[in-house]
């Protein structure tokens, strides 16, 4: 009598890991013609109509990936996996700035199918991104028919607003932005009063930005106005608060507005060869950054004219103030995770807190060792990115929802404050030089995160080849 082996088969690698060799030219062109079984039981008499539905689903998946903040490589991989799973061959997905496209052949057809979708909305929603990863994972595992996948994708793209009262729905984003600012206060040398002031400034800035957005005001002006309450609050408390608290109010109030996710995605796109998308995202990030700087400098400059100049203090050394900034790093990381993920599930709070605190502790140790800010920041980001990619791979999800909150406490707040103060005081050369330093440190963060992911991919490929 034969003995059956009841040992479960090992789970295959996530779909993104399996698709990367194809996207990076590591597989022969002869493998591009996919001969998979068609997962449908309707439309066999009209294969071209069936293929059109597959192409439509694929480009909508790519559109959703880019809309929710994923990298261009994730969007291209999602389109490729979806199209090939449902039987299309010689698929050529592409991403160009604000559009995604796909060309593919239906089985037995000589005329290729083409489809293009424009990216009309951009919103950092990590929960939706996670659900999208899960959808493609089920598709790649042959767990959904075409019509089921289309229905799930439509529900994901047209998801209703979070349940709850309309009043809370209107206040949800301002409160989350305020929590980000409140968590950033202790990280940059403030205390409980600083956190309260930063919270109020963050809420006011978000309310103003939301009101302007509902009235069709472009993003540059919205972000400029949103950054002003932080500078105004700093001017008001400068009369009785210590200089370090004034710095913390300004920095914490604007850090939540900085386009960290967009900048990280832009660097990842550039490193992966998607240069047009990288340039578009980088320009978008720089425009938002310039708007924040313009809003703060305008308020601080006006304050100096009426005798309310803010003090310029040396950057706070994290190794000298570890207790409160460590707690603030945890709160800051969790708040960033909550703010960037609609209807955030609680299971992501603990990893975000652990990565934020771990990155903060490692940065303190590097500071004690005397490493330069660029090298130290890049190494810390690589450590945080490696841990985030490992957890994400085990969950079969995107790493962005874990990595971005983890590196948020490492943003160069002290250097940003010094540069803003110099620009407000009319010392343009010093201010511009400070902004270049801020941009360089932020670039080191993004490159470190990308390096961790590439090292992980390299190790997996070497093991598979060995």
Structure summary:
By secondary structure, this protein is mainly alpha-helical. The protein has 17 helices and three strands. Helix 8 runs parallel beside helix 11 and helix 13 crosses helix 15.
Largest sheet report: 3 strands, antiparallel
Order of neighbouring strands in the sheet with most strands = 1-2-3
Low-confidence stretches: 1-10, 34-44, 160-165
The proportion of residues in beta strands is under 5%
| Average pLDDT over all residues | 76
Roughly how many Å is the radius of gyration?
24 Å
Note the total helix count: 17
Task: Summarize the amount of helix as a percent range.
Answer: 55-70%
Per the principal axes of the C-alpha atoms, what is the gross shape? Answer: elongated
What letter string, H or E per element, gives the SSE order?
HHHEEEHHHHHHHHHHHHHH
